[in-house]
UniProtKB/TrEMBL annotation:
<dbReference type="GO" id="GO:0005886">
    <property type="term" value="C:plasma membrane"/>
</dbReference>
<dbReference type="Pfam" id="PF00514">
    <property type="entry name" value="Arm"/>
</dbReference>
<dbReference type="InterPro" id="IPR016024">
    <property type="entry name" value="ARM-type_fold"/>
</dbReference>
<dbReference type="GO" id="GO:0005634">
    <property type="term" value="C:nucleus"/>
</dbReference>
<dbReference type="InterPro" id="IPR000225">
    <property type="entry name" value="Armadillo"/>
</dbReference>
<feature type="repeat" description="ARM">
    <location>
        <begin position="59"/>
        <end position="96"/>
    </location>
</feature>
<dbReference type="InterPro" id="IPR011989">
    <property type="entry name" value="ARM-like"/>
</dbReference>
<comment type="similarity">
    <text>Belongs to the beta-catenin family.</text>
</comment>
<dbReference type="GO" id="GO:0098609">
    <property type="term" value="P:cell-cell adhesion"/>
</dbReference>
<keyword id="KW-0677">Repeat</keyword>
<dbReference type="GO" id="GO:0005912">
    <property type="term" value="C:adherens junction"/>
</dbReference>
<dbReference type="InterPro" id="IPR028435">
    <property type="entry name" value="Plakophilin/d_Catenin"/>
</dbReference>
<keyword id="KW-0130">Cell adhesion</keyword>
<protein>
    <submittedName>
        <fullName>Armadillo repeat protein deleted in velo-cardio-facial syndrome</fullName>
    </submittedName>
</protein>
<keyword id="KW-0965">Cell junction</keyword>
<dbReference type="GO" id="GO:0005737">
    <property type="term" value="C:cytoplasm"/>
</dbReference>
Length: 201
């Protein structure tokens, strides 16, 4: 039987956090539960690998994706980082790329305004880092990003954000997209060229 810290990595614990994320209306509780899953799924050791698979098997990914719509900055941040860690599992990465990309892009500021929620810098950077993780080693997920009109927002952030951290994170995403040669024709048809993706930092 599990003992000590191993008790944290049991399916029952994952189910508990997912039920909190499903049922709670309290932003602090939601942030804490998402943060717990974020911590349990971090890193490359055996238990975190197990947790990433368990969250998928317990149908936790849709629960997290839905919380990207939260009006709470801290909930969006905690959920984004949790999804980033969970996408280290390749099956999760495919699912998150298919079903979360639109919500992630909606949380990015556009040229006219910060996102409608006016998310803090730390949260925008977290969302950008999550997108980067999802499209790394997955041209299919990069294609999803293009289809959600994400390039426009990324280019705007990389060229006009007042935050060096946001600029850097957006630039990393853009460079990753341009690295997929098979996507360049589609990008160029949309009016983009290499200069939009190779941003000087």
């Amino acid at each position: 039987p599990p003992a000590g810290f191993e008790l944290l990595y049991q399916p029952d614990v994952v189910r508990l956090y997912l039920s909190i994320l499903t049922e709670s209306q309290n932003f602090n509780t939601l942030e804490a539960a998402a943060g717990a899953l974020q911590n349990l799924s971090a890193g490359n050791w055996t238990w975190s690998t197990y947790i990433r698979a368990t969250v998928r098997k317990e149908r936790g990914l849709p629960v997290l994706v839905e919380l990207l719509q939260s009006d709470s900055d801290k909930v969006v941040r905690a959920v984004s980082i949790a999804l980033r860690n969970l996408s280290m599992d390749l099956r999760n990465k495919d699912l998150i790329g298919s079903y979360a990309m639109g919500e992630l892009v909606r949380n990015l500021p556009s040229r006219q305004q910060r996102s409608s929620k006016n998310l803090e810098e730390d949260t925008v950077v977290a969302v950008l880092n999550t997108i980067h993780e999802i499209i790394t080693d997955s041209s299919e997920n990069a294609r999803s990003l293009i289809q959600t009109q994400g390039i426009q927002k990324l280019v705007a952030i990389s060229k006009s954000s007042q935050s060096p951290r946001e600029t850097k994170a957006a630039s990393h995403v853009l460079q990753m997209i341009w690295s997929y040669k098979e996507l360049r024709n589609a990008l160029q048809k949309d009016g983009w060229n290499k200069s939009h993706f190779q941003v000087e930092m």
